[in-house]
Amino acid sequence: MAIFVIGGTGFIGIRVIPMLVARGESVVCMDINPTAPALAGLGDKVSVVRGDVTQFDDVISNMEASKAERVINLSYNLGQDLPPHRATKLNIVGMDNCFEAARILGVKHTVYASSLAVNGQQSHFGERPVTEDDYKHAVVQYGAHKAFNEFQAKDYIDKHGMTITGIRPANVTGPDKVRGSVDHVNLITRPARGEAISLPFADAMRCPIHVDDIAEVFVRVLMADKPAHAIYNSGGQPISLKDIAAIVRGFLPDAKISFDKETGGRESSGNWMIDNSRLVHEFGVQYRPYRDRVLQIINDCRAEIGEPPIKG
Ligand SMILES: NC(=O)c1ccc[n+]([C@@H]2O[C@H](COP(=O)([O-])OP(=O)(O)OC[C@H]3O[C@@H](n4cnc5c(N)ncnc54)[C@H](O)[C@@H]3O)[C@@H](O)[C@H]2O)c1
Q: Which residues pair with 172 in a beta bridge?
């Protein structure tokens, strides 16, 4: 089966595409940055084309040429830094271009990345897991745009009967993550590369999920013909930065990690308690223990600098 992946040369996409190929699918990836050494060894099952999701002609012409039955959109600006006009073109118009092209071409299933950021701060909910049906409290550009993407997907579903499914990844982690939430990542990767790290609040809470796990979630949901729901929380491991530091120190006793304040970050943390029972029950996903993933990231970083792996 042919699959069209937009934004597939990024952090998550380069994990999703090999998983699709391993399942026997063929992939056309469209990205504004078509350079992807990680996809080079996948042979003729994958082609990468340069295209801009903000340009409807690029999206529909490449989607049509791919003859895709399924589409996934991972292109986005991960941050609050873009001027409003540029952010709207990429995050809002880009997503709409994907949905509209999929509608015109009769794509069977379209999957897109939302985010836990639609929920805003955990303090809106108290200390309880947040479900997909909870009110969305996002106020910043990134989270507000994701919330609008979810509305737009529902509008296409309601008015055109399309199958469109959103995944809300939590704080994705991995050795090469450089955009989005990175404090919980740098807390592992910098000590693994022999560098010091200092962060403001030891008590700040995060909900990391390894990039291999979220890639698996995207693939399983994409390959379903008609998921039972329009949106799924990925969930992950609720944990404080202080506790991540303790895991890292367990593997790297000389890790140079410091915090400006031992308390005070918990109240201002984003959504970190997440109910993912919908995804778990329907798709049977199980994540490897977070501690194992920390060791995996440490060893990925050590391999880059020619150091031997640490045994778990
Ligand atoms: N990484 C995380 O922690 C995280 C968490 C929650 C949600 N998400 C969502 O998952 C998706 C993928 O995230 P990621 O971490 O792989 O991001 P990424 O920035 O690594 O990848 C995004 C890709 O989109 C491409 N792109 C940017 N502008 C484009 C344009 N105009 N046209 C075509 N392609 C364009 C980029 O070149 C890049 O390859 C995003 O929607 C992101 O918001 C990520």
A: 209
For residue 273, give Cα distances in angstroms to 107, 160, 211, 233.
34, 34, 19, 11
Give 98-141 pLDDT, tens digit per residue.
Answer: 999 999 999 999 999 999 999 999 999 999 999 999 999 998 99
Ligand 1 center to 250 CA (angstroms): 32
Could you tell me the distance, in angstroms and rounded to a whole number, from the CA of residue 35 to the centre of ligand 1? 14
In short, whether 194's Cβ falls inside 6 Å of ligand 1 is no
Distance of alpha carbon 292 from the chain centroid: 20
Interior/surface letters 101-120, b for 16+ CB within 10 angstroms, e for the rest: bbbebebebbbbbbbbbbbb
Q: Relative to the CA of 211, which ligand 1 atom is closest?
A: 1
Cα 216 to averaged position of ligand 1 atoms, centre (Å): 16
| Residue 251: partners with Cβ closer than 8 Å, 6 or more residues away | 294, 295, 298, 310
Task: Answer for the pair 298, 260: CB distance below 8 angstroms, yes or no.
Answer: no
Atom 10 of ligand 1: nearest residue by CA position: 113
Domains and CATH numbers, the chain: 2-171+209-233 (3.40.50.720), 174-207+237-269+288-304 (3.90.25.10)
| Closest C-alpha to 38, from 62, 63, 11, 70 | 11
Tens of pLDDT, residues 233-284: 999 999 999 999 999 999 999 999 999 998 889 999 999 999 999 999 999 9
